[in-house]
Specification:
Low-confidence stretches: 78-99, 196-204, 206-213
Shape: globular
Order of helices and strands: HHHEEHHHHHHH
Main location: membrane
GO molecular function: ATP binding; transmembrane transporter activity
Structural class: mainly alpha
Protein name: Ureide permease 3
Subcellular location: Membrane
Mean pLDDT: 78
GO cellular component, one term: membrane
Largest sheet: 2 strands, antiparallel
Distance between the termini: 14 Å
Length: about 280
């Protein structure tokens, strides 16, 4: 298995991760605004994830002979096979389970479930509160809760006086993000006074409304109506509180991924038998 051990390689991977993390929400939001259902987008997302995982496992996972490779680790697992298929959420987990380290495997599976739920909720949050607000709130909640849980899981080995001021900055970002959403909702409500309000305007009214021919100017009432007609998730007629609730739920799900993976790899709760290695 190939492991990056240099600082330069690590920083390069981090920059690539930031690039990819910043682009996939925009692409998925664009597909929803063009009428593709989030369920179908998420199916594409999960299949691509599975394909990428298999390719990486049999390439980078096989490179270094000095470390345990992917096929060697597969040969060490035994008898029990779990196939979890939740078709309504398009979640498929197929895991070979060792008889001894099953608690670690279950924690890893829990992290995957949190990731799936968070991603699904995020797609709906993008429609309700917008891409920029959703990413700020979900990422900040993930940092605040995830960092706090990991701090206690790791037996407080980090310096709290350095760690938590940074966490507090992310907590402030959550508050600002919520305020921006409230401001945007009030702004949209004033632009759509002819439709009474965002809470009382139905999708049918949007479909039957007449707008000026040609491309509407971004930010105008005509533009909002045009986007509502094209998008897969209809948000007019829905309470603005729903959007924030979905966003906070997504952030909580994302915040639990890192603690679950940490429990799977470090076994802080001592769920494994003596001498059994972690994942």
């Amino acid at each position: 298995m190939y492991v990056i051990e240099s600082k330069g390689g690590t920083i390069t991977c981090m920059l690539l991760a930031l690039l990819f993390l910043g682009t996939w929400p925009a692409i998925m939001t664009l597909t929803e605004r063009r009428g593709r259902l989030p369920q179908h987008t998420y199916l594409d997302y999960t299949l691509t994830n599975l394909l990428a995982a298999v390719i990486i496992a049999f390439t980078l996972g096989e490179i270094s002979p000095s470390r345990p490779n992917f096929t060697t680790q597969l040969s060490q697992v035994s008898y029990t096979y779990i196939h979890t298929h939740i078709c309504c959420w398009f979640l498929k987990c197929k895991v070979f389970l060792s008889q001894d380290n099953w608690p670690s495997v279950m924690f890893a599976m829990a992290g995957g479930i949190f990731l799936s739920l968070g991603t699904l909720a995020t797609q709906y949050a993008w429609a309700f509160v917008g891409l920029s607000v959703t990413e700020v709130i979900t990422a900040s909640i993930a940092v605040v809760i995830g960092t706090t849980l990991n701090y206690f899981l790791d037996d407080r080995i980090n310096r709290a006086e350095v760690l938590f001021p940074g966490v507090a900055c992310f907590l402030i970002a959550v508050c600002f993000g919520s305020a921006v959403h409230k401001s945007n909702a009030a702004d949209n409500k004033s632009k759509l006074q002819g439709f009474k309000s965002l809470e009382t305007t139905s999708s049918f009214q949007m479909e039957t409304s007449s707008i000026k021919e040609g491309k509407a100017k971004v930010g105008t009432a005509d533009f909002l109506i045009e986007v509502e007609k094209q998008r897969a998730i209809k948000v007019f007629g829905k309470s603005t509180i729903i959007g924030l609730a979905i966003t906070f739920f997504a952030g909580i799900c994302f915040s639990l991924i890192s603690p679950a993976v940490s429990l799977a790899t470090n076994d802080q709760w001592h769920t494994l038998k003596h001498g059994v290695g972690t994942l």
